[in-house]
Amino acid sequence: MNYFSKLIKDSKGNSSKMWKHINCLTNSNTYKHQRIKGLRISDKYISDNASIANEFSAFFIESVQELFNSFKPVKPTSITVRTLQIYFTLKR
């Protein structure tokens, strides 16, 4: 039995152990926590962590807003909410 077959056999039934071996063999964790050194937004280059975080935040918020705006509004006639075995019905 070769080395790789033994790793697979030893990991049988334990997917966490299997992925640990796969990541070790493929060096998958090498780039796992690589820091973003900077971003170019339009013609401006930013490199401080707070600005990078703010730009990512703005991007994802804008993406969700665009997705939200792409849906047609729906007017529900009533909504039933179940909380702690108590039912509430809200009607318009």
Task: Give your account of this protein's structure.
By secondary structure, this protein is an alpha+beta fold. The chain has two domains: 1-34, no CATH class; 35-92, no CATH class. It contains three helices and four strands; from the N terminus they run ααββαββ. The strands form two sheets. It has a two-stranded antiparallel ribbon. Strands 3-4 form a two-stranded antiparallel ribbon. The protein is flat and about 70 Å long. The relative contact order is 0.06.
Number of helical elements: 3
Total domain units: 2
Roughly what percent helix?
Answer: 40-55%
- How many strands in all? 4
State mean pLDDT (0 to 100 scale): 80
Percent of residues in beta strands? 15-25%
User: What is the alpha-carbon Rg in Å?
Assistant: 25 Å
Low-confidence stretches: none
For the terminal residues, how far apart are their CA atoms?
71 Å
- Report the biggest beta sheet as strand number plus sense, adding barrel if it closes: 2 strands, antiparallel
Sequence of secondary-structure elements: HHEEHEE
List the helices and strands and how they pair.
Blueprint: H1 3-10, H2 15-26, E1 39-41, E2 44-46, H3 49-69, E3 78-83, E4 86-91
Antiparallel strand pairs: 1-2, 3-4
Briefly say what this structure is:
With 92 residues, this protein is of the alpha+beta class. 45% of the residues lie in helices and 20% in strands.
Task: Based on the model shown, name its key terms.
92 residues; alpha+beta; 2 domains; two-stranded antiparallel sheet; 4 strands; 45% helix; flat
